């Protein structure tokens, strides 16, 4: 099942990127994956369950990214580490998945039932940035009064908006870096 899941998730991400959340149907996913039409329903209770698992898979990937960012505390510059993490967090697929979550009420319901209390991906991203800022503050690379609880959602919101304004490609890392340095300069 793991290979079928990955194949279906990858196909769903390609459809989502190419055609948007309204085009994402079980038929579109199985056609994109080149598999039998019933494969989604053989492995998932229904299409909303499939979509919820797709989002939860993205959240699991973010856990790995969080560990890598925390491991980078004390290395390079804080701005460079944050920029890299935010560029990775807001990949075109992740931005499209957030759009999918916003567009589908049934998906949001399933995700709440699965235990996601915030806006999935954005909430986990905020927690990642908050933990990293706290780690850098504890290492003395940020001021003792650095307010990670305010800075983290500010960065997430600003970079997410920057990414959603892009029509054809994700923003350049330099654009993200500019936002990061503007937000953390006061710290």
Number of helices: 10
Low-confidence stretches: none
**What is the CATH C level class of the largest domain, in words?**
Mainly Alpha
Q: Report the β-strand fraction as a percent range.
A: under 5%
What is the CATH third-level topology name of the largest domain? Answer: Tetracycline Repressor, domain 2
Q: Report the principal-axis shape.
A: elongated
Going by CATH, the architecture of the largest domain would be Orthogonal Bundle
Q: What structural class should be given to the helix and strand makeup?
A: mainly alpha
Query: How far is the N terminus from the C terminus?
Result: 48 Å
User: Radius of gyration, rounded?
Assistant: 18 Å
Element-level helix/strand string? HHHHHHHHHH
- What's the helical proportion of residues? over 70%
Q: How many DSSP E strands?
A: 0
Q: Please, what is the average pLDDT?
A: 92
User: Structurally, how many domains make up the residues?
Assistant: 2
Major sheet: size, sense and barrel closure?
none
Describe the model:
- The chain is mostly helical.
- The protein has 2 domains: 1-43, Arc Repressor Mutant, subunit A; 47-184, Tetracycline Repressor, domain 2 (Orthogonal Bundle).
- Helix content is 73%, strand content 0%.
- The protein has helices at residues 2-19, 26-33, 39-43, 47-71, 78-89, 92-103, 105-113, 122-138, 148-165, 173-184.
- It is elongated.
- 31% of the residues are buried.
């Amino acid at each position: 099942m793991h290979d079928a899941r990955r194949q279906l998730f990858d196909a769903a991400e390609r459809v989502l990127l190419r055609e948007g959340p309204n085009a994402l149907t079980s038929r579109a996913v199985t056609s994109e994956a080149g598999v039998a039409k019933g494969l989604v329903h053989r492995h998932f209770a229904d299409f909303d369950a499939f979509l919820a698992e797709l989002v939860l898979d993205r959240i699991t990937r973010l856990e790995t990214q969080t560990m890598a960012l925390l491991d980078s505390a004390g290395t390079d510059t804080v701005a460079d580490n944050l920029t890299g993490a935010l560029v990775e967090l807001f990949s075109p697929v992740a931005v499209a998945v957030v759009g999918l979550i916003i567009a589908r009420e049934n998906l949001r319901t399933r995700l709440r039932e699965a235990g996601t209390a915030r806006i999935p991906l954005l909430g986990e991203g905020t927690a990642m940035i908050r933990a990293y800022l706290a780690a850098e503050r504890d290492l003395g690379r940020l001021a003792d009064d650095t307010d990670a609880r305010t800075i983290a959602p500010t960065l997430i919101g600003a970079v997410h908006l920057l990414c959603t304004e892009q029509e054809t490609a994700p923003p350049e890392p330099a654009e993200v870096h500019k936002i990061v340095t503007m937000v953390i300069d006061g710290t």
